[in-house]
Predict the structure.
Amino acid sequence: MTSAPADDAKGLVEHFEGTLGPIGYEWSVDPDGVKMPFQIVRFTGGSDADSVGYSTLGLSRRVLPSPTSHLHIRHELLMLAPEALKPDHVASILLQVGKMVIGMERALLRGDVIGPAGALVPGTDLTALYVTMPTYFPDEFATYSDDDGAVVIAWLVPITDSEADYVSSHGWDAFEDKLVEQDPDLVDFHRSAIAL
């Protein structure tokens, strides 16, 4: 279902579309037909010619406390996926994580790991999500500002059990160093684990 975004999201939509291309598809009700607490959108572009971006739209209306400081954070969640991947798989992941964030009443931070909780899509070894900055894009894409303040774009990167364990035991900065060294394709939902 495609519909116009709410007026208060117009600038945010333009921010996303300036990097990811126009919105091609939008979900506003869940598979049971219940109105969702935020929209999920699929853009026509991604980080390369074979990928597309998906994001929440409207999650940033909720101002959420940081679990580690006095800060309050507004964010939208981003995922990048192969264009050939079934869109409902990615939309379902974003819906689950967004609802989890609302239920926890706390913001996600760089280095957070969600899961592991089984294969993210059929036939994959990726079982968890790693929260980071959208490093495949220019720095200015990572934050959008409006009259209410900043909105952080939190990229959810699919990772394996072993990678989730490594983040837990060595910290997010060490894990990101490994990603820089080995440069895996973080858009590939069927990639192998990096060497740890």
Remarks:
- The first strand starts at residue 23 and ends at 29.
